[in-house]
Amino acid sequence: MAKNRFAQPLYGKIIYIYETDLQKEDLSTIFDPSTYWIDVTGLDCKVGYLVDFKENVGLVLTPPPNETLTFEEEKEHKIAQMKAERDAREVEPIQYNEIILDYDDKARERMRIAEKALTDNSLPNIVWTCADNTRALLTIQDFINVNTIAAQRSNELHTKYNELKDYIETIEDTEELESVYFDMVIPEKEEETEDIEEPVGTEQDDVITEILDNL
After folding, report:
1. 176: left (phi over 0), alpha (psi -120 to 50) or beta
2. Which ranges in the chain belong to alpha helices (H)?
3. How does strand 4-10 pair with strand 135-138?
4. What CA–CA distances, in Å, run from 165 to 12, 83, 160?
5. Looking at residue 199, what DSSP letter applies?
6. Which one of 9, 12, 136, 154 counts the least CB within 10 Å of its CB?
């Protein structure tokens, strides 16, 4: 079980809670560095709680009053949750051949430095510590391959997020909105078809038809 809990606020409300063994300062290696986090480890805090700053007290978390969010607010929260999920998955460890490699900001910087060192010194490989603390020999091509895998994953995640965002914006009822999750298969919207009226014959058409009948 994760030992730390961090909450992400938006417009005065908690929209996402991330449970992890990482420290708060490490979250910038996983999520957008501009994301603001509140340490709620050991506190009663859930998605939807209100966040307020009180002088001489600091940040105060309170359960939301018994009022219903507007549907547009619920959609904004759902979109924010999907974005947070995308950001978290984008820096998850990468499976490469038979090893698992960290891929947060610090790990990517280490890879960049290692690849440059191999290139500058014409070295064949380097001993690398993997995500599970095992060690493996990696070459320049290995680092290139890992970055390629990461780029493909990132593109897939951003594409899925954008598809989810577009889908959420079209949802019109709460039950459908609540059923949205990142790995879902987005249902295809039925295209509206217009009834095409049969063309009405003109007087000229009637004349042509009569001529052809008399041939």
Report:
1. alpha
2. 71-90, 105-121, 140-170, 174-178, 203-213
3. unpaired
4. 22, 9, 9
5. P
6. 12
